[in-house]
Write a structure and sequence with these properties.
By secondary structure, the chain is mostly helical. Helix content is 78%, strand content 0%. It is globular. Residues 1-16 have low confidence and may be disordered.
Length: 363
């Protein structure tokens, strides 16, 4: 029997989770960290760096708090999936979808995004494929909306010198210009999503149909026109939702992102107590980092994240070595942990899901 669309999607997903795609971001990340260690070893005594970082009871507690912050992030996104599905997903099912989506984010370039398989994950938990596509478009819109709304407040209440590390170097100028360019693109994309799934879906659909006919885009014509169809379907459902639905989904989104950002704050609290007064600046810079990482060409921002963190926060610590060690803890808590969890979960999920589809095909 010919495979159904859903079955085909799962099989394509299976090809996505190959071993080398898990290994690649690890190799890139560790390679960049090794290079930076060798570079900074010429400038610093790392034994002195480690003693300066105060590995004591306070630092251990703050590392634990870092993991709890990521629990807050997972709770926020799990809550959001529950709200989006009108409580059809249990907490366990919503958590599984969150973990699988985060894993795909870890093994795909940030510029591409790992949510493209989110509808497959939702479908495997009993959500009809068309509605699953609707829900993933909604999550994308809410994520982008959070950045568009929050970033102006962060910039407004933080001096340019503090938020962009304005030291007059090429790095500080580069990160400032990159932030504003990417923020403009995010704002434009958010407006397109708002127009397509809430305001004027028919207009966006017509525009996408025209674009899909362009000669140099014909290869992706079906995907582009399909996006227009999905936006119209999404609009039909979302326009019926009450304000309380949007408020709940937005709060889940805000909790998830803010919790992720606070990991860096607690790491600074644990290892650099003298910099407690800079907690707001540390948080503000997380907004800049994550906006810049949205255009990362590497899987999960591997390599670029570690370098960007150590360079960006370097002026807030006594040496580059300390910033690098903090970057490693940051990535262990916010990235490598999910890479490991996903690598354990995905094979079992794929086996179970494909078996379910085979059983449906035989019926």
């Amino acid at each position: 029997m010919k495979p159904t669309t859903e079955s085909s999607s799962v099989k394509k997903g299976g090809n996505t989770f190959s071993f080398w795609k898990v290994l690649l971001p690890v190799v890139i990340g560790l390679g960049v960290v090794a290079y930076m260690f060798m570079r900074d070893a010429r400038k610093e005594d790392f034994s002195a760096v480690m003693s300066t970082m105060h590995f004591d009871f306070r630092s251990v507690i703050c590392i634990i708090l870092g993991f709890l912050c990521m629990f807050g992030r997972d709770f926020g996104l799990t809550w959001r999936f529950r709200a989006l599905t009108d409580r059809k997903l249990s907490w366990k099912q919503a958590w599984k979808v969150d973990m699988l989506c985060e894993f795909t984010n870890c093994v795909t370039p940030s510029a591409v995004g790992g949510s493209s398989l989110g509808m497959v994950f939702l479908n495997s938990q009993g959500i009809e494929m068309g509605r699953a596509t609707t829900l993933m478009l909604t999550t994308l819109f809410m994520d982008e909306l959070f950045f568009v709304v929050a970033c102006p407040f962060i910039v407004l209440f933080t001096s340019s010198t503090d938020i962009f590390a304005s030291t007059g170097t090429g790095f500080s100028h580069g990160i400032k210009y990159t932030f504003w360019v990417v923020y403009f693109i995010i704002t434009l994309w958010t407006f397109i999503l708002f127009t397509g799934i809430i305001w004027k879906p028919a207009w966006i659909k017509k525009t996408l149909y025209k674009i899909s006919g362009w000669r140099w885009l014909k290869k992706w014509g079906s995907q582009i026109s399909g996006l227009g169809d999905n936006m119209v379907a999404t609009s039909v459902e979302l326009r019926k939702k009450p304000f309380s639905f949007w408020l709940e989904v937005f709060w889940g989104t805000a909790l998830a992102w803010t919790s992720r950002y606070l990991v860096v704050n607690v790491l600074f609290l644990g290892f650099i107590p003298a910099d407690d007064r800079y907690q707001w600046v540390i948080l503000a810079r997380q907004f800049v980092i994550w906006v810049v990482l949205m255009v990362s060409p590497t899987p999960g921002g591997a390599g670029l994240s570690e370098w960007l963190f150590s360079e960006y926060y370097g002026d807030m610590v006594s040496g580059a070595g300390i910033a690098l060690v903090l970057a490693i803890f940051w990535r262990l808590i916010t990235y490598y942990l999910y890479l490991v969890i996903g690598a354990v979960m995905v094979p079992a999920w794929l086996k179970k899901t494909i078996e379910q589809h085979h059983q449906k095909e035989k019926q």
